[in-house]
Amino acid sequence: MTRIGRSLRGWTNGMLDLPQDLLSDMPRITLIGNKEMVIENHKGVLNFSPGQLTLKLAKGSLEIAGEGLVITSILGRELAVEGVIGEIRYKESGENR
Amino acid sequence: MKEPPLSWLRGAVALHISGDRTEGLINAVTEAGIVIWNVKATESGVSLRLLLNDFYALRPLLKQTGCRMHITGRIGLPFVAARLWKRSFFAAGLLLFGIVLVLLCSLVWTVRVEGNNRLASEDVLDAARQEGIYPYQWIWRMDSPDKLSKHLAARLPGVSWVGVERNGTAVKIQIVEAALPEAKPLNSPRHLISRTDAVISDIYAEQGRPVVQRNARVKKGDILISGIIGDEANMQAVVAKGEVKGLVWHEYNIEVPLQKKNTVYTGERKDRSFLVLGNWAVQLWGYGKSPFEESRTLTELDPLTWRDTRLPFGWMTEKEMEVRETEETLTPQAAKQEGLARAEADIATRYGSDSVIKSQKILHEKKENGKVYMKVLFEVEERITEELPIVYNRGE
């Protein structure tokens, strides 16, 4: 995507008031208390252990820390996690990888 | 959505995957479009579940990522079926059981008839059998209940409605019997003749030909209403019916004693109570001798009942009541009245309560030996008909 294209896109988003996740390839995260979490539009699993789940995103990564994490389903770009979620940390691409 | 729809029917496998790059495998699986669920991280790797269909597609991915898998569980119908296939007799028994159960459930086991008083249950069951309702009949071979009830109603005489109701394996035939008019007694052709000598005061022929007229004098045995109608060419014998009243004279010899004995209760009473056990009665109250010279005893048994059955124990009371005899002397006038009243009552009971006393004449009256003797003639209007069957004497 060229720079002009990108800026044009940002401009249209602003003008038309469209949801960000539709156009700019960003994840949508739904969190139900600290029990359940659904992440749409992720780019794969980087690390998975009962205490930690790291997901790759279009830009950067998402770290979920908690206890007894279970991926209840993976369907294409959608991923559902259950367990006790303690921390969610968003890392921009510049810092890591 | 936690897992794909109908995963139990399609069969699923629980796997344990060990290796260094388990995350890579998860990504590869997702890329390949394989659905996995219940992914849990453990010390030595990852456990997950996937559909049986996708299991073979997993192999090359495992090789690619250098992981090893270990099957920990087989879930779903295909595995159950395979296991059953190995124990074919068990499976056959299971199937047979199901089939036998279904077959037994589709048999009629009992047929019940309800609501019949006049009709015999056997007749109803016979008719039902001909319509295809009988024990050990297949339910699917029976007609629909409304058709069956219509056919049954046509088959059974004297029935105004038939309902057929099937409840599981029991068939109930509900019957409402038609209300029939009361049967008239059959009569053979007859005449109505006179019972006594009389003067006709009223004649009304309902059926038959009246022979006599009002104020006619008839003798005993005369035909009043003839049962033969028509002329000589076209003759028919019918049952003569009707009402004929006539004036009849009755002579009564009446004697009434002037002394009259009565027994009256004095009101004095002594009660005894008993407890009844079977054939035994135990007296509880009212001991002691009877204090009365003359008495009458009334016994009341009051057994305990439960619903309609009498229990063999209960209560019995005996009431002993004192009586006293009184003597009464009638005046000749009162004795005469009483004698006439007695005669009138006798007429009413003998010749019908609708008899009317037209007049009475005392022919003779005397008082002798403490009695009143009377000879009275009553003129009574009463029914005088008697039946006489018509007999054909062809031999004459």
UniProtKB/TrEMBL annotation, chain A:
Signal peptide: none annotated. Gene3D superfamilies: 2.60.40.2000. InterPro entries: Spore_YabP/YqfC, Spore_YqfC, YabP_sf. It holds the Pfam family YabP. This is Sporulation protein YqfC. It comes from Paenibacillus rhizophilus. The gene is yqfC.
TrEMBL record, chain B:
Keywords: Membrane, Transmembrane, Transmembrane helix. It comes from the Bacteria. Pfam families: YqfD. The keyword Transmembrane applies. The chain crosses the membrane at residues 89-109. InterPro entries: YqfD. NCBIfam families: spore_yqfD. This is Sporulation protein YqfD. It comes from Paenibacillus rhizophilus.
